[in-house]
Amino acid sequence: MNTRKIITSIAIVAVVVGAVFVGKSLGGSSTGKSTGLLIVPRQVERRSLEDVLTVSGEIRRDETKKINSPVDGQVSDVAVSDGDTVNAGDTIFSLDGRDSVAVKGKFAFYRPLDVGAVGPDVKQLEDILISSGTGLKKSDELYTEETRTALGKWQVQHAYPAAVASAEKTITVSLGQNQAGYSIGKYNSVAYVISPTAKTTAAGSGPGSARRFPRVAPTISIAVDRSSVLEGGTVVFTVTASAAPVADLTVNLNVAGSSTGGVSAVKNNADYATINNTVVIAAGTTTATITRQIFTDAVIEDEEDLQISIQQQSFGGSNEAYSLGSTSAARVVIPANGSDLIRTLTIEASTDKVAEGRSVTMTVKTTVKSNQALDFYVTTTGVATSGTDYVKINQDDLQIGANNTTVTFTIDARADDVVETDEAFTVSLVADPNYAAGSQPYVVGTPASATITIDSGDLPELSLVGGGIIKKGSSATFSITADEAVSADTSVTYQLSGSARAGDDYGVLSGVTVLKKGKKSVKVTVDTLNNGIIFKPSDMLVANWPSRIGTLNVKAGEFVLLGKTLFNLTEPVFTVVMSVSPTDRAKLSPGMIVKVNFNAGESILDGKISELDDSPTVDAQGNSTYEGKVLVASDLESVDGAKVSIDVTLEKKDNVLAVPVAAVLRASDTDEVRVVNDKGTITRVKVKIGLIDGEWAEIVEGLTGDELVVIDVDPAADKPNAVTQNT
User: For the chain, what are the domain ranges?
Assistant: First the structure.
């Protein structure tokens, strides 16, 4: 038997890295020659190792807030651009011609506010008005006239247009009767004129204040769907523009005719629901309709009509909003009705006792209303003498006016110096002497008469002092004066009338005041209301200003709906944002040290992970990613969206035994390295691997540190325990 023995000899050994030739001799060979095989060894070393994970990232500015539209509307103008820094008080854009101004607060406004509104948004508004120097003294959750006045001053500061067109209105104050306390002098009424103060700001008067109107003035016409309509029927007026306006177009109307608009037939003798003096043709459309039902009532009425005509409107100067078409008026007729109804009259007196020099008011009522005036007749009887003790009643003055169910007339008791007992007289309704019994225009009901006693006691005489012009939003006083001091507290009544309305144009007054004992006068204050001032939630945009505009999502002329994101706000400085897979996310935690590589490694900054998402973001394809933030040690100079790579140190070990990764033979159940001894023998040694850092692997068990391991070798020479085979 021949024995084959492999003898290896090391020709060259490099301590760090070198080439080693191993000679191989085959026993029994006729030549006895040995062949040399090349291996690459490496000395086992002590090194510092790191496990580094590289992930992608980008440079961003963090979004701090989204600003959404609180209302529907059209963007009139935009005053900012992407990247602009906005301060509190700056105009950002205009919505429906109203500036949207940056203000500081805690939450976004979400509803219109007016007098009587209650809530935390009212308090926030009042805090803003106080900080803006409007003169408001305190804030609470109730919107008052003081709030509205302060808001008006704030809107003047920001060049807001008048919210509501306003004309002069009047208030007339007149003294009422109190027969037991005073008589009324000849100066018994005063009048005030409420003068509007708000002025419309001209278009383009400042940043963000541009007002947009149709570029070409359309022609406006009006038509009605029928020429005659009965009570209970419906009539439709259609206002038509020759071309669709690009923005809502307000058309002025004049409503005329013998019929009357109002709330209802019962409440205010109306023939139809009130028609406003304007109608709006919406942007992009050419028509607007006005539909009204003719009220059904128990009223005797002649033929009536309703006519609506288009009135001219101007932006100022010669710039007309529209022109009038050939049919600028439309008319419909309401035929006569109610001829079968019978009117029953009754009479009452305002008091059963009247002092000398005072008046008693008689009220006559009818059960049936008519748009025709009705003459009626009365007679007087009693101890008091007509023409001597009281002024004779003029029968020509007795008439119930058209569309009324009541009328009043006064009877003046004459004053004299005669000491006399109280005297009474009776006023009675009688039939119309001009008609026969069977064709009377009315019948007398119950009560058919009223009896009044004339009290001859002397009383102080009162007069009114006041009147003039009041600016809207300001106050005025009138004085009630007596010709002599009253001997006891005396209630004084007064009435307010005119085109101005209580609660709308001026504060509601009770109509009663008290003239104190020993006093000759008392003052009453009239507070006018600045009802042209309104607040819309888009007027103020709440955020922590100053802030940087990130991305602007609207442009001038665009229509926006409630809830649309108008723009977002971002941090002024950049942030590094990392994006990782779920597998990599499991390896990461806040506080880990990183290196951020910019511009393909041209710039490297140290940093650490400051935040990591706990839940993933899932895209449309179902892929999950986690985001995190990295703090770097210096300011970033980059552009939004720039890409970076981020090296995260997962683990680091110092002074550990390590071999090149290429020296490790990995198997499912064990790891091995090939060790070359001093005699040139290659031996496989089992090892335990720890941290792997790119090209190096930590040896936890199996080596002592003075070994030479094989990195590469001819596979034929790497047979464990190679021996000669007998054949």
Answer: 42-61+573-708, 170-191+342-368+385-529, 219-334
